[in-house]
């Protein structure tokens, strides 16, 4: 990449923090024109957009310019920028990234129920189309369910959806609450399955059942680098990164081809063992979406329908 790759921040990074990969390879897989990176973040820069006091980690900087340089390098046309928990409910870094994108980025915010109507309107004008509810305990303190439903009431008139981030063992407890949310849902990272378990087994089947129960639910088949236990490369005849995640993602793509989304998850918060080469991550796509038609739906048609419906 030609853009600056400085990842230092005005804040002290969490010990052991892995910075994003500064020199990703150019993907061998060429994406269809108009591909959308439907899950990525910006961090700060901390001196301009300070991290939230209530954050559970302090990342490196990962600016909008660096994100958009990666977009161009990998061959994406658009981004969906998801508010990261290190910025709490201060959406200014994310909204600033959307405004700078000239309409090529949309966003997912974190809001509190008492947000003013003016702020909501401003976020919508910037390109926000959803809010994220996070149930991952290491990332956020729990919010009362009524407060989340109050948020839904505020966003419903704007046609926004709710992005849900949770881990597979928590789905049975959360399922009824999720079913009660009266706007479309988007699930992060396939509900974080344990990929050492059987992709045809009861835990992943329960997740697929949830998708079957709510036809207005979308699923991000993302984060092989986060879900893998085998690691980035399994050498077994051919080189295939994140081989253990493939059967899970493929099941979702094949059963729900019109409801799947893909994203890099750049700059990959909270990875401890390795930081992925984003070019290799893109090369993972043809292994989970095995035909040109499935790839066009995953990368272009589906995210466009959800985030830029006015252009379809
Ligand atoms: C992800 C995953 C993680 C973090 C966040 O907002 C966040 O802090 O989403 C994680 O640590 O698993 O989707 O980026």
Walk me through what this model shows.
The protein is an alpha/beta fold and 312 residues long. It has a single domain (36-311), classed as TIM Barrel. Helix content is 33%, strand content 13%. The protein has ten helices and ten strands. The protein has helices spanning 64-74, 92-100, 117-126, 145-155, 171-179, 202-213, 224-227, 246-255, 278-288, 292-307, and strands spanning 36-40, 78-82, 105-109, 128-134, 161-165, 185-187, 217-220, 234-236, 238-240, 260-261. It has an eight-stranded parallel β-sheet, sandwiched between helices. Strands 8-9 form a two-stranded antiparallel sheet. β8 (234-236) and β9 (238-240) form a beta hairpin. α5 runs parallel beside α6 (202-213). The longest helix is centred in the last third of the chain and has 16 residues, at 292-307. The chain is globular and about 45 Å long. The two termini are 32 Å apart. The model has no long low-confidence stretch (mean pLDDT 94). Bound molecules: (1E,3Z)-4-hydroxybuta-1,3-diene-1,2,4-tricarboxylic acid. Residues 41, 84-86, 139, 188, 226, 265, 269-270 line the site of (1E,3Z)-4-hydroxybuta-1,3-diene-1,2,4-tricarboxylic acid.
Whole-number mean pLDDT:
94
Q: How many whole angstroms does the radius of gyration measure?
A: 18 Å
Number of domains: 1
What CATH first level would be assigned? Alpha Beta
Tell me the β content. Answer: 5-15%
The helix/strand series, from N terminus to C terminus, equals EHEHEHEHEHEHEHEEHEHH
The low-confidence parts are none
Count of individual beta strands: 10
Termini gap: 32 Å
Quote the CATH topology. Answer: TIM Barrel
Q: What structural class results from the helix and strand content?
A: alpha/beta
